[in-house]
Amino acid sequence: MQCGNRVIQRGITCNLQVFFTNEGKGWGLRTLDGLPKGAFICELVGEVLTSSELHERKAKNSKHVDQVLLDASWGSEGVLRDEEALCVDPTFYGNVGRFVNHRCYDANLVIIPVEVETPDRHYYHLALFTAKKIEAFEELTRDYGIDFDGTDDLNKAFDCMCGSKYCRGGPNNSKD
Ligand SMILES: C[S@@+](CC[C@H](N)C(=O)[O-])C[C@H]1O[C@@H](n2cnc3c(N)ncnc32)[C@H](O)[C@@H]1O
Q1: C-beta of residue 159 within 8 angstroms of C-beta of residue 133
Q2: How far, in Å, is the centroid of ligand 1 from the Cα of 5?
Q3: Residue 111, CB half-sphere, CA atoms under 13 Å: how many?
Q4: 86 pairs with which residues across the strands?
Q5: Domain that residue 12 falls in
Q6: Please, what is the end-to-end C-alpha distance for the chain in angstroms?
Q7: CA-CA distance, 80 to 58, in Å (whole number)?
Q8: What terms describe the molecular function in GO for this protein (predicted)?
Q9: Do the beta carbons of residue 85 and residue 123 sit within 8 Å?
Q10: Pocket test for ligand 1, best of 17, 47, 102 (most atoms within 8 A of CB)
């Protein structure tokens, strides 16, 4: 794995392409070159919201499905309350990271929270790295961590078309 902070400061260095997927997932992101395991792809950028604000957005519009917990309790003493825990929501503002689609369990990217220098060490940059060797033109995916079978209806925003043999959210996986 490349050293997080410095790699992120250099920005995106691989050839990425936004493309329209054939499987009903809308736009996706792929690499034009082969990549080794541990390569930095891009940051996941978006609006920083408290988890309460995000919950309100999700209640009004189920499109806010791809949000990532930014800090929770890892940089602080103890557990944060909902209104203090921060999330990144790339729905309205973001970078190419917002085109990375979900894949159940065997996605080829992982999100690594990278510490940046702030006085309270409360904020992280969310960096996407390859979790395995990736071939040229392969779609880049990450596991959103959605509980498709959960009781939280706010999280059932789409039928998963990831194609993984471990898929937990396809139209035929519903327990309803
Ligand atoms: C962060 S966006 C990813 C980019 C999106 N495909 C687009 O066209 O803008 C997340 C949305 O993409 C779609 N999506 C992502 N992964 C999917 C999957 N495995 N199956 C079906 N739809 C997916 C869902 O509509 C989801 O709400």
Answers
A1: no
A2: 28
A3: 23
A4: 50
A5: 4-173
A6: 41
A7: 20
A8: methyltransferase activity
A9: no
A10: 102
- Output the pTM of the full model: 0.88
Can you tell me which atom of ligand 1 is nearest the CA of 25? 22
For residue range 89-98, what is the model confidence (pLDDT) as tens digits?
888 899 999 9
ipTM score over 0.95, yes or no: yes
For 112, the token pair is 């690594």
In this predicted model, what pLDDT tens digit does every residue of 43-92 receive, in sequence order? Answer: 999 998 888 888 888 888 766 556 677 765 555 556 666 667 788 888 88
Query: How many independent structural domains does the chain possess?
Result: 1
**Range of lowest pLDDT (16-25, 35-44, 59-68, 144-153):** 59-68
At position 49, the amino acid (one-letter code) is L
Q: Which of 158, 160, 167, 172 is the pocket-test mutation for ligand 1 (most atoms within 8 Å of CB)?
A: 158
